[in-house]
Amino acid sequence: MNTKNVLLAVSTLFLLCLTGCPEGYDYDTFPGIGRSVGLQDGTKDLTRFFYPYGLATDAKGNLLVADSGNHKIRFYQADTQETKELNRGTSDSIQSPTGIAVHSYTSAQNEEVHSIYFSDTGHHKIRVYEAKGAQYTFNNSLNLAGTGLAGFRDGPSDIALFNHPTALALFTPKADDIRMKGEDPNALQPTIFVTDTENHVIRAITHITDRNCKKPLSVGQDMTGFCVYTVAGNRKCRALRQPIPHFDGCIEEDDTREWVSGDNAFFHKPGGIASDKCGNLYVSDTQNHRIRKLTFTCGADEADPFRAGCYRAKTIAGSSEINPITKKRIPSKGMQDGPGAEASFNFPQGIYVDQKGRIFVADFNNHRIRVLTQAGEYNCTNDNAYTVKTIDVRLYKPFDLVLTPDQKTIYVTTTWPQRHMIFEIADFEASIQ
C-alpha cells in the first residue's frame, strides 16, 4: 500500500464515520487487541493497528501480526498481553505485508528459535525473521524468495518471481515422506506454501533440491538455497474470463467437483491457505467464492515431488449457477449454509484447520466466520463431503483468523472503519455443533 493509497484509505475512514459507521456488528460483545487506527505498541487497549491482515500463533499462544497499512510485523505476547514491533530499529523496508506463519523449534544448543515467514506483498517477496528466545529477539529479515519485481518464474529462489503473494502455510513432513527425500531427519524445516494471488496459482518454497531445482540433495550435502515450484493453478484465468460476461471468476470448463491435476486447476486470486496434519492444503479461492482442497499424490519414485502434477485439487465448498448469457456453469456468491456443493461464500479470505480437521474461513464480504466439517473420522485419506455452518457472530470484513493452541479461542483480524483490531471469540462451539 503506497502513500497515496494510505491517504485515500484514511480519508475513506473519516467520511464513512461522518455518515455513520457500520451498525449491527458485534464489536462491543468481544474483547480484542487494539481499538482505533494508528501505530502504537503497549497493552491491549493502547495498541493501534492499520489494516492488520495476516495472523499466526506459536505454541505458547503468542501472536504474530502482518500490520499491512503500517508496513510492520507486530508481536503480541500472550502472558504480558502487550504488543511490540518486530522490525523496530532495523534497516528493513517492508511494503504491505499480508501473510505470516511461524515455525518454532529448539536448537542443538537448547535455544528457543523462531522462523517467522511473511509475504512482503508490495515487494513481491517472501521473507523470514530468525528470532530467539521467549522475547523474540531478532536481527534484520532475510529474503527467502523473489527479486522485488512482479512476474512469474519458478526455479532458484533468488531469481523466482511472484505477483502479490498473499497468505502462507507451513508443513513439515515426517522423515519418511517423499517430500523429505534426501533430507537430514534431525534438521527438518517446513515447506512454505504461498497463494500467489495475481498469478492465480499456489507456489511452494523448499530447500530439498540442488541449485537446478531438479535433483534431491543427499543427506549431509550442503544446501545451495531454496527453490520455488508451482504446485497448482495454470495462470489461464484471464483468458478464460473473457468469454463469460458478468462473471469475475475462473473455473474448469465443466465446473467439476471431482479431483483434477494441480496443473489443470483454475484459481482466481486465491487468498487464504492452510495445511492440516497430513500436508493437505486448503485454499480460499477468493474470487471464485469457493474453498478448494489440494492433496499430494506422488510416490516414492518421483524425483521432483513439488511439481504441479504431484498435487490434485478439488472444490469442497461453494455453489454454482448457470450464466444466462453463455449457458456455462459458473461459481456463485452468497450466504448459504448446508452441504458443500450448496453452500455459498462471498470473497472468502483467511482459512485455518484446527486439530479436529475442521476448516474455519473468514468470509470477508459476508462478515462471518464459516466452519466446514467433514463426515467420518479425521484422517489423511478421508474423502467424504463437507458441510458448512456459520458461527453466530458478525464482524465487519474479517480478513484472517487463527485458533489459540488450546483451540478454545479464535483470533480474527478486522478493519472496521474506526477499529482496526484483532477480536477474541470464545464459546463458539455451540453454534457449530
Helix-strand blueprint:
Elements: H1 3-18, E1 32-33, E2 42-43, E3 52-57, E4 63-67, E5 72-77, E6 82-85, E7 100-106, E8 112-120, E9 125-132, E10 137-138, E11 142-145, E12 155-156, E13 165-171, E14 191-196, E15 201-206, E16 227-232, H2 237-241, E17 260-261, E18 273-275, E19 281-285, E20 290-296, E21 311-317, E22 320-322, E23 329-331, E24 338-339, E25 348-353, E26 359-363, E27 368-374, E28 386-390, E29 400-403, E30 409-416, E31 419-426
Antiparallel strand pairs: 1-31, 2-6, 3-4, 4-5, 5-6, 7-8, 8-9, 9-10, 9-11, 12-16, 13-14, 14-15, 15-16, 17-21, 18-19, 19-20, 20-21, 22-23, 24-28, 25-26, 26-27, 27-28, 29-30, 30-31
Helix content: under 10%
**Form type:** globular
- Gross CATH architecture of the largest domain: 6 Propeller
- Strand order, main sheet: write it out: 2-6-5-4-3
| CA-based gyration radius | 21 Å
Strand content: 35-45%
For the record, the CATH class of the largest domain is: Mainly Beta
Give the biggest beta sheet. 5 strands, antiparallel
- DSSP strand count: 31
| C-alpha termini separation | 40 Å
The total domain count is 2
Q: What is the CATH topology descriptor of the largest domain?
A: Neuraminidase
The average pLDDT score comes to 81
* Alpha-beta classification: mainly beta
Q: Segments where pLDDT lies below 50 for 5+ residues?
A: 1-21, 217-223, 239-247
Number of helices: 2
